[in-house]
Structure formats: C-alpha cells, structure tokens
Design brief:
The chain is an alpha/beta fold and 512 residues long. It has helices spanning 3-17, 21-30, 37-44, 52-62, 66-70, 126-136, 158-167, 181-193, 209-221, 237-244, 264-270, 293-306, 368-380, 386-389, 392-396, 403-406, 411-424, 446-449, 454-465, 491-507; strands spanning 78-82, 89-95, 101-108, 142-143, 204-207, 227-232, 248-255, 261-262, 275-281, 309-313, 337-343, 356-362, 429-430, 439-440, 443-444, 467-468, 470-471, 483-486. The chain has an eight-stranded mixed β-sheet. Strands 1-2-3 form a three-stranded antiparallel β-sheet, with no helix packed on it. A three-stranded antiparallel β-sheet has the order 14-18-17. The structure holds pyridoxal-5'-phosphate (PLP).
C-alpha cells in the first residue's frame, strides 16, 4: 500500500462525499472507532497509513471499496461514483491505463424511510449538530437546549438511589408488560388523589419514559390521514410520532396574549370529521404555561361535543410555581376517554433512568379496540426498564424533594425569576412569565432584527456567542419570532448567558 495513493484516494472520496476530517472523527466516535484528529490529518497528508480496522471504517464511511482505497490498484486508477436518486446503486468503475475495465459493479446504499420525510425533532436537530461540530473542534458551548436536569447539578433524591440499589438484583428479568404491580399501584393511587376517575391497575402502563408511550399511543391510534389536534408550540415528539404513524398533526394555536392558553376558537375551527383526538401539554413545554380549570373545562366541552380522545401530557405536574395547583384534565372528563401521561424524568431528576407512565381513564368502553392495540404494542416491547420501575413507589410517596426547588427561594424558582427579568430587559424581547417546568419561550421583535428565519438566528447566536438554544420552529411554531431557553443552569451561568444574548441583540441584523 502506498501512502501517497492512499492519501489521494482518501481526499478524493472525502470530497465526493462532502465529508471533512471532523465528520470522519465524529462518525468514528459514534461507532466506537478510535480515530483522533492527528491520525486523520496524517492520513490525509500522506504521512502514515491506517491499520486495517481503520481502513475499513474509512472505506465504509466514504462508501468506497477498501482495496481500492488502500491503493492496491495502480496509481492511475480512477474512481467515479455516480449518485443515483433514491435507494441508490453507486456505480464503481475502476479503469486501468491499458483500458481494460477490471471491475464494474453496483454498490447499494440505504436511505431513510420516506415515513420520516415530514418528521421534525429539532430539540436534537441541525443547530445541535453544528454545536457538536464546534465542540469537537474545541469550542465550549453553553447549552440551553434540552430539559435534562442532572447535568445542571440537580441530583436524584438519595432515597431513590438507595432503594434502587436495594432492589437491583430483583429486577433482572422482564416484568409484566405494563409494569410491576407495586409501581402501577403507586401510580394508580397518585392518579386517584388527582381525581382521575374510573381507573384500575390494568389501566396503568409504565414506559421507557413518556416518550415511548407517546409513540405507542400514536401508532396504535392513527390510520393514514387521521387527524389529531396538537398544540403550537408543542413538545415536538407529539407531532413527530403522529406523523410517523401516518396521521396528520393539525396544530391549534396557544395564544401568547392569553398566557399561552389554547385558543378554543382555533381548536373548533380545525376539527374535521377525521379528527380523532386532542393533545394538551399541561404544564406546557416550551411555554411554561399552566392551564386553569376554566380553560380545561372548555377543552373538555369541545372534546365532548366532537367525541375526541383527550391525551394530556402532564410530565411537569410536580413542578408548579407561585403556589398554583395543577388540575388533571381527566378529572373533569369522566364521560370521555382520556390518557394522562407523567413520569419521573423531571420531578425526580432521573431523565436517564427512563421511567414514565400513562393512565387510561373515563369512558374506556368507547376505546375497547384501541386499548387492545395499546396492549399489543406494549407487549411487543416486552416491558419498560425494570430497575426504574422499582423506585416509582418510593418516588411518588412521602416527601417530595422537588418542592424545595420550586418554593420561594428554591433554585428553579429563583432561576425562573432571574431569566424572565434578564430576557425581558433586552430591547426587542418580550415574554410571558412561566408558571411551571423550566422553560421560557420569549418573543423576538423580528422587524427590529430583520429576522425571517429563526433557525438561522439560532445558528448565528451559536456561532457568535457559543450559546445553544432552540428556535421556535423546532416546536412547530410557524412564525420566526420565538426561541426557547431552558433555565436549568445556575444563576451565575444564566447571567453570563443572558449578558451574551443581550450583546448579540445589540448588533444583530439578520443577513440572508
Ligand atoms: C412535554 C414533554 N413530554 C414528554 C417528555 C419526555 O419525557 P420522558 O423523559 O419521560 O421520555 C418531555 C421531555 O422533555 C416533555 O417535555
């Protein structure tokens, strides 16, 4: 193998695939292959040759033949890779000086399913990818993009960890598909205290986070073209799962002028004879809104009138500030079929343990067949994470340590007050003060900053100030005039971040 031929072919293949050195390093780390910056730059400049495993990794990633890349073919061999559309066959021709074609075969490549064409999940999307690239090249990024409490110093209550340790050896096998009896009993009792009617142990399903259960619920319900009402802005997993299931996510507006409450007239306008259900997210991500009883009652009235299923995502129901009370919409709708979701990712700072649940309540008769579908999908994934189920009873019972964070003087509450003031003090930025969770969704005066593309705004902020946040479009918000900030970092960090954001807005004019 010749260093020069290998280097030249590597450079050509990288150019043909539009890949830079950093892309190869990233792909390697994703696949657990050891490939450092210095290695790749030595290969590219022809100083060293790779080991066979690295050679194969490079060949696979660049979609070329490993023997060819190695330079076993004569130096004047040339490669032409014709990119066809679709699930494609790349033609690889290797031609020799004496004009005899020794190889002419098709290389099959694989595209993602077209079911994913309209699926959006920007909480981990292109702006986040750019941040990862910047980090790989040594830039420190301040991440205000994901609601993951642990990295910001929110620790799991000791008792939860202790109890999980104690039970670990009993959690080696699969559990019942819907979950351990003790966990479901605790969830059932929790739901009873919230006034959710007509529930028994078989109406409780545990999941690998609420995320998995959202996916199951959408897959089991929606036929191609069935419509489901989802808020805008939303937590984008709802829209993504509904779309992936073949359904049509129809977004109803939450009104910033009315504390971000759902606009009931807009909901009514968007109901058709294909509408099967309505989703509410209460408390809300990304707005931090908490819906009062009157608003919930109006949603129930519409759902009743049009016989809709109500899906209520209440994962932040234990993170309510200002001494307000959370009301489960299911408690107002005993005659409708409701599914209520919650979990421990946020209230117990164990997003990584993956434990959530859903509660089927109210008029279950009308959903007999759908419930069979839910059971099938639940059985198909065998069960949710059993060690995490084992601490549900501990977590839901007794002292709720999360209260210390949200009461006056508590960390989340202080951070909420800080971020609200700091952001709304910036000329051109306004916001509704959040009442729950740990997100704020400020509005940008787009005329002032010439903003027509909010993703571009997020990228510009990232590149200029090394701050990562998600643009409103990532939450299915149509206008380019909002962004979401996760205010989990400590006040000193928020201070630095908002200082930089204020400086950014002091000079920013979007160039297209
Ligand atoms: C509104 C909402 N629902 C569901 C989830 C997913 O939570 P889990 O960790 O239980 O999958 C999140 C996570 O951020 C969320 O904000």
């Amino acid at each position: 193998m010749s260093k020069e031929i290998f280097a030249e072919r590597l450079r050509t293949s990288m150019a043909q695939q539009g890949k830079k050195q950093v892309d190869l390093i990233r792909a390697a780390s994703e696949q657990g292959v050891k490939l450092g910056k210095s290695h790749i730059s030595q290969y590219v400049s022809g100083k060293t040759l790779p080991r066979p495993d690295i050679l194969h990794f490079l060949a696979d990633t660049l979609q070329v033949d490993a023997d060819w890349l190695r330079g076993d073919e004569p130096a004047d061999a040339d490669v032409r890779i014709a990119d066809n559309a679709g699930d494609s066959m790349h033609s690889i021709h290797t031609t020799h000086k004496n004009n005899t074609v020794t190889e002419d075969r098709k290389m099959r490549t694989f595209k993602k399913s077209s079911k994913l064409d309209n699926v959006l999940y920007d909480v981990r999307g292109p702006v986040v990818d750019e941040a990862a690239r910047m980090e790989e090249s040594g830039t420190q990024i301040l991440k205000l993009n994901i609601g993951n409490p642990a990295p910001f110093g929110f620790r799991t209550p000791d008792e939860v960890i202790y109890d999980m340790r104690q039970q670990l050896t009993e959690c080696e096998g699969y559990s019942n598909a819907q979950g351990l009896f003790s966990a479901r009993k605790a969830i059932m009792q929790y739901a009873q205290l919230k006034g959710i009617p007509n529930i028994a142990i078989e109406d409780i399903y545990t999941g690998n986070g609420v995320s998995e259960l959202i996916n199951i619920c959408m897959s089991a319900l929606l036929d191609d073209g069935d419509e489901i009402l989802i808020p805008s802005p939303d937590y984008p997993l709802w829209t993504a799962c509904a779309t992936l299931a073949g359904g049509k996510a129809v977004h109803y507006i939450c009104d910033e002028q009315s504390e971000w409450y759902p606009d009931i007239d807009d909901i009514r306008r968007k109901i058709t004879d294909r509408t099967k259900a309505i989703v509410i997210i209460n408390p809300n991500n990304p707005t931090g809104a908490l819906y009062p009883k009157e608003v919930l009652q109006k949603i129930v009235d519409v759902a009743r009138e049009h016989q809709l299923i109500i899906f209520s995502d209440e994962i932040y129901d234990r993170l309510i500030m200002d001494e307000e009370e959370h009301i489960s919409i299911a408690s107002l709708a005993p005659d409708l079929f409701c599914i209520t979701f919650s979990g421990l990712s946020k209230s117990h700072m164990i997003a990584g343990f993956r434990i959530g649940w859903m509660i089927l309540s109210g008029n279950k008769k009308v959903a007999k067949d759908y419930i069979e579908g839910l059971k099938m999908l639940s059985n198909m994934r065998l069960c949710s994470n059993v060690p995490a189920q084992s601490i549900v009873q501990t977590a839901l019972g007794g002292h709720q340590s999360v209260r210390g964070y949200i009461e006056p003087g508590g960390r989340i509450r202080e951070q909420r007050d800080y971020i609200y003031k700091a952001l709304t003090d910036i000329p051109g930025i306004s916001a509704v003060k959040p009442k729950a969770a740990f997100y704020i969704f400020p509005k940008i005066d787009v005329k002032r900053f010439n903003i027509t593309n909010d993703e571009q705004f997020a990228l510009d902020l990232l590149r200029d100030k090394k701050i990562l946040l998600i643009h409103g479009g990532g939450f299915n918000w149509e206008q380019p005039d909002h962004f979401r900030v996760v205010y989990l970092p400590r006040i000193e960090v928020l201070k630095e971040a908002t200082g930089k954001i204020a400086d950014f807005f002091s000079y920013y004019k979007q160039q297209l």
